[in-house]
Amino acid sequence: MKIKKIDAYEILDSRGTPTIAARVQLDNEIEEFGFVPSGASTGSKEAVEKRDGGKSFNGKGVKGVIDDADKNLFPQFLGMDVRDQLSIDQKIIELDGTQNKANFGANVTLALSLAVCKAAASAENKKLYLYINSLFKNFFDLNVQMKMPLPMMNILNGGAHANNGLDFQEFMIQPVGFSSFKEGLTCGVEVFNSLKNTLNKKGFSTAVGDEGGFAPEINSSEEALSLISEAISSSGYKVDKEVTFALDCASTEIFKDGNYIFSDNNKMSNKELIEYLTALKSSYPITSIEDGLDENDWQGWADLTNKMGKQTQLVGDDLFVTNKDIFQRGIQENVANSILIKINQIGTLTETIETIKLAKENNYTTVISHRSGETEDSFIADLAVGSGAGQIKTGAPSRSDRTSKYNRLLMINAWENLEFLGRSELEQ
Asked: pTM for the complete prediction?
């Protein structure tokens, strides 16, 4: 089960932007690929996504990045046991030699890391989620109970994911009032389709944004939440009892010179934004808020956690960037109570698992997440199940780059008798 060959290819993500697929071939002829996503709304401390510059794809090509890896990175792993994920990932980190994968690029390192994991699972003749689950025990001495994740479905887009007047980036629903994953997903799909009908009736566009959610020309969070509430009721489900709301404010995107600047030129301090979020929650059953404040507004985050943390899941994305060292600071300062996990923010699977482990040990909830620039690869669905993360954020139930993850989860759900905890997943 030794690595015989590694190569990589320039492929396209869901925005038509180049990304990387790495292939790992074993001495028994098994081969697997790792595909890498790309984000539009990114934290400043994320691992580096390296690109070529120049004219090709307006500077976003990755052929030169791949050529460098072919020459200086990939040959270093030939002959290694593909099942030793920890040693391979540690070697990736050492060979890169930077804190943020700036040498080879996290898009290269992650493609290799994921391809290794998938090839090892195939070599062991294990389904991928089962193999990922075994990594927690074999390398990190942690017995993780697998379960089906609660979906966090982005059905209405704003911010960097749409060209409308919504400042907050994602308006999501969570089907909390169901006893199975399939029932919960069915609810989410039906609400999504109901929202389309609601928007049509009111004369809004039903074009979709980067993550498959609708992107109508509306200008306030209140209007967005009201439209979704109407869609939930119209589809025969009960707001709050069966379906709750989740927000991704992506507040770093609107933070400038110490204030949060909205598109209508309204300006808020961190205290005013906290009060605004509190008021929204008093009007709508918002059970989760992601990136409610800027990534560097640590005092604001502490105030937000103190104000809303006992009643609301407060998710750090740009704040933590899947980095266990940054996340450790959040734990020590009692900031947030949940972490978003994006594998390309850190650049290897091992580092991702270390961060998930740290969250579990400190009673933070974990949400496995896609990126806005996705591929058809469904790895994160297996990661969500295998890690027992409890929640998955992978867009609206539209566009194959999003539905590939839901379809994979439906298949796993059919194969395994795994628990689905619904609302309980939101509790620390």
From this structure: 0.97
